[in-house]
Amino acid sequence: VFQKWVNREISNFDYLIQLNTMAGRTYNDLAQYPVFPWILRDYTSEELDLNNPAVFRDLSKPIGVVNEKNAKTVKEKYENFEDPLGMIDKFHYGTHYSNAAGVMHYLIRVEPFTTLHIQLQSGRFDCADRQFHSIPATWQALMDNPNDVKELIPEFFYFPEFLENQNGFNLGQLQMSKEMVNDVVLPKWAHSPEDFIYKHRKALESEYVSAHLHEWIDLIFGYKQRGPAAVEALNVFYYCTYEGAVDLDALTDEKERKALEGMINNFGQTPCQL
After folding, report:
1. Are 193 and 110 in contact (CB under 8 A)?
2. How far apart, in whole angstroms, are the C-alpha atoms of residue 1 and residue 19?
3. Which of 1, 128, 196, 257 is the most buried (most CB within 10 A)?
């Protein structure tokens, strides 16, 4: 697969899907859903210029520190973390770039994810301000908040329907602007959900991304996923998210085991290292 990708015989999209599959990710498990990268950082221009490197996200950095301003906070958090019981390793992020709640967050307008989201929120929609209502606003929130580190899901590159409220769900209204949450607000350069998907997919297959995608793959699936390289890259997540970090079979206490399983499912899971 790698050789085919290097020779440009398969697309970036196909390569990412295959890596996700090899690393144990699947559409059948929300806790291990396929992970895709944010690839752009320009969500405000009238036109999207894919020949300009400045429109792309820096793929060599975890999403939590793409904004240089956050790097200091993230570093300090890691260096100052002490677990009095000595069980929990230091980490940069207490949340994860891929978890079930994040998948439902993006896909809230489409069943069965709508129902799953409502179940997660004890029988109702989460408050409107926390819904996925705008792509530019979601990106801005990531840049402002080092604790929000959601990457994307594959649907952002092929499935325009998830950006439309075709079922007419009442998702509430935003507190500040009093605006109703309906279809997802698109970047200025996208004229419709289909246009967004077309341009976003084109960005994924662009020359810039083809030249830099391996840097992101190292962080998510490769050698910068754990160990000293991960520490240096500001890419260490809460210990429970790593494969093999917890031996559930060794836990004899049923309650403790259930609690840990719940935590692992909610926290998100780092893909198997390839």
Report:
1. no
2. 9
3. 196
Q: How confident is the model at residue 184 (pLDDT cuts 50, 70, 90)?
A: very high
Among 16-20, 134-138, 198-202, 237-241, the range scoring the smallest mean pLDDT is: 237-241
The single residue listed with the structure tokens 């060794």 is 250
Which DSSP letter does residue 250 get? G
CATH number of 1-267: 1.10.1540.10
CA–CA distance from 267 to each of 120, 218, 239, 261, 263 (Å)? 14, 21, 10, 10, 6
236 CA to centre of own chain: 15
The 10s digit of each residue's pLDDT in 24-73 is 999 999 989 999 999 999 999 999 999 999 999 999 999 999 999 999 99
For the stretch 100-124, what's the b/e string if a residue is b when 16 or more beta carbons lie within 10 angstroms of its beta carbon?
A: bbbbbbbbbbbeebbebbbeeeeee
pLDDT at residue 254 greater than cutoff 90: no
Rg of the Cα trace of the chain? 19
- Report the pLDDT value the prediction gives residue 157, as an integer from 0 to 100: 97
